[in-house]
From TrEMBL:
One of its GO terms (biological process) is sphingoid catabolic process. Coiled coil: none annotated. InterPro entries: Mpo1-like. It holds the Pfam family Mpo1-like. This is DUF962-domain-containing protein.
Length: 231
């Protein structure tokens, strides 16, 4: 198998983002701390609505990219192969998408068991969607050529990149510059934003339905405290 420089860069990117996210998990001891940190930068209702739709798009597109890359030293030995003669079965080996999805679930279970139980199926569905997108593309690439690159036809990565950029744009420009009038949490902590945002956006939906409002109230108190400290 031939060495692929592009695949090596993809490994480094996935490993770097995974490290940043996982490292930030240790910054929060409970749900109030995590949601309070993120809530400081998302106090306006319409900005929360923007993030309710934007954050899942960012997470899904990240999983689509991550699922293309198997974890080093785990699974087959063709991890750094640029071409393949058949589509890979990522259920038989651990990839960055399954790894980071598991880490998210473990982190959420640590800080908030209720949130983990409710949000776990959503992360799983996102992973399944990313997997099917990846697998269908690999089959298409395999049918078109006896040997194909690790990224298949490249269409899923192009779609994921477009979704990723669009979701970041609407959150930063529309959500923060226009609606909130304040900097996004990602400028304070990239890892903190990536680790907490999915749960925060999910809880905004639950709170609008009157679910777990006690956590909402305790989070608001902490948001007020953090806001005063910043000011």
């Amino acid at each position: 198998s031939s060495f692929s420089f592009s695949l090596m860069l993809a490994h480094l990117f996935c490993a770097g983002i995974s490290f940043v996210i996982i490292k930030s998990f240790f910054d929060f001891q409970n749900a109030q701390e995590a949601l309070g940190f993120y809530g400081v930068y998302h106090q306006y209702g319409w900005n929360q609505v923007v993030h309710f739709f934007g954050v899942p798009g960012i997470l899904w597109s990240m999983l689509v990219f991550f699922i293309h890359i198997k974890l080093p030293f785990i699974g087959t030995t063709s991890t750094l192969s640029s071409t393949s003669t058949k589509p890979n079965n990522h259920y038989s080996s651990l990839n960055y998408a399954s790894f980071i999805a598991i880490c998210y679930n473990l982190f959420y279970a640590h800080i908030d068991k209720v949130g983990a139980v409710l949000y776990g199926p959503i992360i799983y569905m996102m992973y399944v969607s990313a997997y099917r997108t990846y697998q269908n593309d690999q089959k298409e690439a395999a049918a078109a050529s006896q040997s194909h690159s690790w990224y298949g036809t490249g269409k899923p990565l192009q779609i994921a990149l477009a979704v990723h950029i669009f979701c970041w744009y609407i959150q930063i420009h529309l959500g923060h510059q226009i609606i909130e009038g304040a900097q996004p949490a990602v400028l304070k902590s990239l890892g903190g934003a990536l680790s907490v945002a999915p749960l925060f956006a999910f809880y905004e939906g639950l709170w609008s339905l009157g679910i777990n409002t006690s956590l909402q109230e305790s989070t608001r108190i902490l948001v007020d405290q953090y806001t005063k400290e910043i000011c």
